[in-house]
Amino acid sequence: MHRGRSNPKLSSPCSPKAVHKVISRFSLDKKQLVRSIGFGGLLELPLHRKIGHRFSLWLLTKVVPDSTVASHPAAAGKVAGMPFYPNDVSKVFGVPSGGCPVPKLVSDEAKAILRGALGLGEGDDSRPRILHAAKHVLKRKFGRGMAEKDQAAFKIAFVVFVVENLLAPRETDSVSLDYFMALRRPDEIHTYDWSEFVIRVVLDSARQVQAAFAQGRPVENLFGCILFLQIYYLDNLDFGHEKNLLHDHTPRCKAYDYDTIKKLAKADRTSSRVGCLRSFGRKLAREASDVCYERSIARCGCHVNGVVVGSADGGDQDGHSDDIVFTDGRVYNQKILCDVCGDVGMEDLVMFCACGATVHQYCSDPVVLDATLVQWSCDECQAKQDNAAADKLSEEVLNRKRPSHCLTDCATRDQSSNKIAVATNGISRKAYVQKGDREEHFA
Questions:
Q1: Where are the beta strands (DSSP E) in 17-113?
Q2: What is d(CA 57, CA 206) in angstroms, rounded to the nearest whole number?
Q3: DSSP conformation class of 242
Q4: pTM above 0.90, yes or no
Q5: Pairing relation of β-strands 351-352 and 374-375?
Q6: Residues 12-36: pLDDT tens digits?
Q7: What CA–CA distances, in Å, run from 132 to 17, 122, 171?
Q8: What is the pLDDT at residue 339?
């Protein structure tokens, strides 16, 4: 990493302050239009007076692509070793995840539709001009309600405004065209994977920053959604039981205003520097079971596996549901109590005992084998099995001492040489496979 010359003053087109200033004045009708396209979580965005560029620069040097997960081959990354995926962007901002990828190419038709919605001429394609026009559409007042044409223009203007100011800003003097195709039909905006698009631009930004350091060039502009990196990174750190923020609601951006980010980033800052680069990374990552992101299978308030029970875009989530929600969308109505924590909820992998006892994955930390469910024996049943095995062994020893004609047809030892057991170490339970006299630990 470059150690010599100091960086000039950093800048970034990412401006959550500009977004908050506009959306905080929306009427109820405009807020409903935002929710209708799947961006309702941004209505919860708090005020950010500014954004820490030095902290963001360090984070971008710690971002790498993550192609190890087959389900996210094109849009997944790691920041300081912690993986993030499109669903995590959705949890932070409450924007659409899944669906069709945002097209990278743009047609003349898409450009014409955008210009028409924003009231721009043929040559009005500079970033300041487009953002000014989008802001004008968003602030326009409608005394007698909005016509269908006005609603379509509002939806297009909103996406352009939040993409260019927050979710995926590129250069400061131009507008990226690689999402205009997703705006051709305003009523279909929610069908695109905008969360993946955010990650795509973040990874591009990280590559440019790291290439500049490798070549000894100064870094001046930080593009991409650096606010996502800040919130996701800090939300996954362990600041101690009393200082950790509870993952009891989404979008997560609601819990992170400027002062909160500044305080937590300061606690994570180290005294060392690498050249001009301020260093962070003092704190360790939180346990996966303590966060609501995709790297975890933990419950989040009234959520299971990080899947929100209720609106995913910051809508009404007050009604508690007993439904069990799986990450693949299946919903069950069963009440299953964990034998360890006593909690209700069935995770992707739950350990079942023949007597009916169950253990959540995040309570036992078992190794995920190929099987969907792991056969397991609770402490009481395991003790009974051990006693039975000891009695059987004693009987075999006695039989060896008897004449052959006295031998009876005793039951042999367990037909299966392998069995799943659970070792208790105070708090957590670790799964291991017991083979004869050997114990092969997996956790």
A1: 63-65, 77-79, 82-84, 100-101
A2: 9
A3: T
A4: no
A5: parallel
A6: 989 999 999 999 999 999 999 999 9
A7: 15, 16, 16
A8: 58
Whether omega for the bond prior to residue 251 falls within 30 degrees of 0, making it cis, is yes
Alpha-carbon distance of 126 to 173, in angstroms, equals: 7
Retrieve residue 149's tokens.
């044409």
* Alpha carbon distances (Å) from 276 to 5, 62, 265: 7, 16, 18
Residues 314, 94 contacting (CB under 8 angstroms): yes
In this structure, what token pair is assigned to residue 98?
């899944």
User: Which residues, listed in sequence order, are joined to residue 285 by a DSSP beta bridge?
Assistant: 237
Question: Which burial class, exposed, middle or buried, applies to 46 when counting CB atoms under 10 A from its CB (0-12, 13-18, 19+)?
Answer: middle
pLDDT, tens digit, for every residue of 154-198?
999 999 999 999 999 987 666 677 888 899 899 999 999 999 999
Identity (one letter) of the amino acid at 439?
Answer: E
Backbone φ and ψ of 381, nearest 5°: -65, -35
Separation of alpha carbons 65 and 54, rounded Å: 21
Which pair of structure tokens corresponds to residue 285?
């990552």
DSSP 3-state of 147: coil
Residue 235: per-residue pLDDT: 94
d(CA 266, CA 26): 34
The pair of three-digit structure tokens given for residue 274, joined into one six-digit string: 């690498």
Residues of the chain with confidence (pLDDT) below 70: 1-8, 67-74, 172-175, 274-276, 296-383, 393-443
The four Cα atoms 296, 298, 303, 308 give a dihedral, to 10 degrees, of: 0
Contact 314, 44 (CB under 8 A): yes
- 430, 364 Cβ separation under 8 angstroms: yes
Please tell me the predicted confidence (pLDDT) of residue 74.
56
Nearest to 316 by CA among 254, 373, 249: 249
Transcribe 244-294 into DSSP letters: SPP--SS-GGGG--HHHHHHHHHHHEEEEEETTEEEE--SPBPPGGG--ST
DSSP string, 2-37: --SSPP---B-S--HHHHHHHHTT--HHHHHHHHHT
CA-to-CA dists, residue 346 to 293, 323, 330, 421, angstroms = 17, 10, 11, 20
